[in-house]
Design goal:
The complex is a heterodimer of chains A (246) and B (450). By secondary structure, chain A is an alpha+beta fold. Chain A is built from seven helices and ten strands. Chain A has a single domain, classed as 2-Layer Sandwich (Alpha-Beta Plaits), CATH 3.30.70. A three-stranded antiparallel beta sheet of chain B has the order 1-2-3. The chains are: A alpha+beta (246), B mainly alpha (450).
Chain lengths: 246, 450
């Protein structure tokens, strides 16, 4: 059919029903795009904890850990590895990482879950703000909250300030001690994993670099299929340890 | 036996007088037999404005006579308080050398114990003494003038007691002396508090020296500077607690404001108690000026008790309304939980309600009632400080997570060592007060101050 030679029918000849159908189709296409945009905004809200902090990664590498909480079986190998690697004294209350136990008696199916905790290497660390002598500080290159042992006066205000109970006074070191993602004991020697993540048989603790989009930690945090959260978000410290299930 | 001690104490007065000699630029004589020629504080009624001269030996004999005139009770009290200080020093040093963890009952979850509460109590008292006494000799309200010297002396004594206690609480105090200076963290309230209290102590020392020299203008300048440093330091101490975002019971602007108000309340109680005791100790009768000063101090005390009752009421209500997480549990622990006894009996009754009633009945004139009220207040306020420090920490940071380890509020009971060191802090205040009364001759203030 030679379309070029056909006479122009003009819009005045298009039936009303046809016009409506065309407009509907246009609106539907627009709606899909608009809805998509809205959906993407909404999905950001859904993973607010992760994306709020994830927008900015001021450090390179930006070390982080994701806990796949439901996989933890409380075997405590992470704790043992930490004690051994970081020479944590064998006294009550001395630990860099531990596993908390939560029971939900009226739950259907499993009634117990384990929550591994350690220093959250916060982006806005309270401990660093309150220390009078800068004995604890945020490492400018990798964001780990570090201790300068010789400057610690033992006032323990950092312990009061920490919303994660991640600090203790080490009588052997004569300073407050805390998790530093094994920066001195493993990462400095070329290891890619912290002692606890390496020791975990259930792949609960995923350690990595949030500033690298190819890193497993980045991928676990930047998805919307599974919920990602942090502990005590109301403390406003912008932690770098995330929790998820599955 | 007392001669070396007395001589040492006299050197302090000696130093004051030497300062004065330098400032007025007068030549003093040096005599081989008696040492430096010295000034002493003019006594009441000396309107010439000129200072009296006396030799070191005369000063020594004056102090000796005052000490000799004291009864056995005085010596017994000096002995007990000195023993407390000695015991505390021994206990503190042992803990420091052999490791605090072996002697103190503080834990990872509750790292601050009774020693922090005692430190807060002593610096609250010191700031209160400074602020209440400054109404007179800094801001010129005549009625408050007579309490100036003893109050400033006691503010020095109490802050020294605070430093004494905190020296054994901080694990490595010597590092503080170094790194507070060479590695300051300006966002840290602890840093500001420590530094400002250092400045405060210096001003209070200078103020006391100038007061004794009757140098009123520099005394006023130092007193004003000391008050400003004291307010800044003390509000920073409040902010040490108030700015911790993970501790809901403390968090907010309430603490720095509350600390200043409660410091003034404590100041009134301590001024009344130590002035009544001081006059009893020296077996002297209060003059009308001093009675008037204590009457107005009582009135200020009544006002401040009402202010703190008001503050406490709203603190409790804000902790209950809407059951805010972390805060609610702490407030309920005070109202009907494990802190209820100490809250209602000590913090509310002994520290506020009973003294309020007694002060009102006394009308600021019945010294016996005022003494009972102030002693009750001081005991209550110490427990108040203990509650403040402990309740805030007793809520575990993971309480809302609902884990088995942190389902309940945590406990802390002070160890024997911690109690001995706390008692030593009180001992040091008592010792300095007792010696101060004799060495500085009842902290007499002339009538014609200006």
């Amino acid at each position: 059919m030679d379309l070029d030679n056909r006479p122009n029918e003009g819009i005045e000849n298009v039936p009303m029903q046809q016009r409506r159908d065309f407009l509907k189709m246009g609106l539907a296409i627009t709606g899909i795009f608009a809805g998509g945009s809205l959906l993407s905004v909404a999905s950001t809200f859904n993973r607010a904890h992760a994306s709020d902090f994830a927008k900015k990664y001021p450090f390179k590498p930006h070390y982080s850990m994701v806990m796949r909480q439901d996989r933890c079986i409380d075997c405590e190998r992470c704790m043992e590895a930490c004690v051994k690697t970081n020479h944590v004294p064998n006294v009550h209350g001395a630990y860099r990482t531990t596993i908390l136990e939560k029971e939900t008696p009226d739950a259907i199916g499993g009634k117990r879950e384990f929550i591994p905790v350690l220093c959250n290497q916060c982006n806005l660390p309270q401990c660093v703000r309150v220390c009078p002598t800068k004995a604890t500080y945020k490492d400018k290159s990798n964001g780990i909250v570090m201790m300068d042992i010789k400057k610690c006066i033992g006032c323990l205000t950092c312990q009061e300030g920490c919303p994660y109970n991640a600090r203790y006074f080490n009588e052997e070191k004569k300073a407050v001690d805390k998790c530093n993602f094994c920066i001195d004991t493993r990462l400095a020697h070329g290891e890619k994993q912290t002692a606890c993540a390496f020791a975990c048989p259930a792949d609960v603790r995923v350690f990595g670099d949030l500033s690298n989009q190819e890193d497993r930690v980045f991928k676990l945090v930047h998805q919307i299929e599974k919920q990602v959260w942090v502990l005590r978000p109301e403390a406003g410290t912008r932690p770098n340890v995330f929790y998820t299930k599955g | 036996m007392y001669q070396p001690v007395i001589r040492c104490l006299c050197y302090l007065q000696h130093f004051v007088c030497l300062l004065q000699r330098d400032m007025v630029g007068r030549t003093r004589f040096y005599t081989a037999s008696t040492g430096f020629t010295l000034h002493t504080t003019p006594h009441k009624g000396d309107k010439s404005g000129m200072v009296q001269k006396s030799t070191l030996n005369e000063l020594v004999s004056g102090v000796v006579n005052r000490l000799k005139s004291a009864g056995m009770g005085f010596y017994l009290m000096v002995f007990i308080s000195a023993m407390l200080v000695l015991a505390a020093t021994g206990a503190g040093l042992q803990a420091m050398i052999q490791g605090h963890e072996n002697f103190y009952n503080v834990t990872r979850e509750m790292p601050w114990g009774i020693l922090i509460a005692a430190y807060v109590f002593f610096v609250v008292t010191s700031t209160g003494l400074c602020l209440v006494s400054s109404i007179g000799h800094v801001f010129g309200v005549q009625d408050f003038m007579p309490i100036a010297k003893r109050s400033v002396f006691l503010s020095i004594a109490t802050i020294l007691s605070g430093f004494f206690v905190i020296a054994f609480e901080i694990k490595l105090p010597w590092r503080m002396a170094i790194y507070n200076v060479i590695s300051p963290n300006l966002t840290s309230n602890i840093w500001w508090m420590g530094t400002l209290y250092g400045i405060y102590l210096m001003f209070m020392f200078m103020e006391y020296i100038f007061l004794n020299m009757n140098k009123h203008r520099p005394a006023v300048i130092c007193g004003f500077s000391g008050s400003v440093a004291g307010i800044l330091a003390h509000s920073n101490l409040g902010a040490v607690f108030g700015l911790l975002m993970g501790r809901e019971f403390w968090h907010g602007p309430y603490m720095p404001i509350y600390f200043i108000a409660s410091a003034m309340m404590t100041g009134c109680a301590v001024i009344i108690m130590f002035h009544v005791l001081g006059f009893k100790l020296n077996r002297e009768k209060m003059g009308p000026d001093m009675e008037r000063a204590l009457e107005v101090t009582t009135k200020i005390g009544i006002l401040l008790i009402c202010v703190i009752l008001f503050f406490t009421t709203w603190k409790m209500i804000s902790g209950i309304a809407g059951q805010p997480g972390g805060k609610y549990e702490a407030v309920m622990a005070l109202i009907q939980g494990k802190f209820a006894f100490s809250f209602w009996v000590f913090e509310i009754m002994a520290a506020m309600v009973l003294p309020l009633i007694l002060f009102m009945i006394s009308r600021g004139k019945n010294m016996k009632l005022m003494l009972i009220a102030s002693v009750s207040m001081i005991i209550g306020i110490f427990v108040m400080r203990f509650n403040l420090v402990m309740v805030g920490q007793s809520v575990p940071v993971y309480l809302e997570l609902g884990v088995n380890e942190y389902k309940h509020l945590m406990d802390y009971v002070p160890s024997l060592y911690e109690m001995i060191i706390t008692a030593g802090g009180f001992g040091l205040t008592a010792l300095l007060f007792l010696l101060g009364e004799k060495v500085f001759d009842g902290h007499k203030v002339e009538a014609d101050h200006h």
